[in-house]
Structure formats: structure tokens, C-alpha cells
Give the backbone structure.
Amino acid sequence: MKMSSTVLRRGGPSDGASLFDVGVSLIREECEKAGIPEPVYEVDTDGIRIIFKSGPWSDNGEDTTEQSVTDELKPLEMEIYKMIAEGRYTTAREMAVSLGTSSRTVERSVVKLKKMGLVRRAGSKKNGKLELDRPLNEP
């Protein structure tokens, strides 16, 4: 979510209160759209600080973080994912040689990564390549 904010300092514009009200309204709307809790506002002599909590959250604000995708990957699968992300290797055979395992083991791992929605095949069967479908940190 992309948000911008204006910090109103002491001695700021005469319409500072109205700017603050509009800003708070916009922040509330964006938080509601994103499904995240409203931030905490702290006012002191230096201005206004807006603190956003990190998430994800349930409707009541409780943390609902599920098991990470990386927790489901074996170390070899993680290495294969990294290789695909870096674009270092184009074939299962090249990855297998680099990892010291069989091409079939790499192929099975790639199938699992595809099923998890992490990688996809792009291009033709002959000249195509594996690429990331989504980063590991996305749901």
C-alpha cells in the first residue's frame, strides 16, 4: 500500500487542523480498503507521528500469520527456487550438476514449486525458461 503523509509542525500553516483532518480521513479510507487496522497517532511538540502496525490481521486486529511458504520447502527446493530467481541455469540438468543431484530430483522439485505457484514456464517448450510466478513473501 502506498501512502503519503504531511507532518504538521508547530507554527505550520494556519489551516493545519483542516489538513490534518483531511489526512486522517484519507489514511482511514486507505487502511479500510487494505483491510488493516487504523494507525496510532502521536502528537508532541515536534509534530504528529503516525504509526502503522505491520500485519496481516484478522477482522479483530489479531495477527493471522500463517506458516510461511519457505517453511514448506526443503533446502534443495529452496536452492532451486533461488537458482530460478537468479536466472543462472536454464535446464534441470545444469541445476542438477550444480547441486550434485539427479535431473529427475530437480524436475520433481520444479513440479512442486509450480504447484505452489512460485514458478512457471515462460516461452516455448524448446526455448522457454522457468521464471518466478511470485516472490516467496507474497501470500
Summary: The mean pLDDT is 75. The chain has two domains: 1-65, 69-132. The chain is about 40% helix and 15% strand.
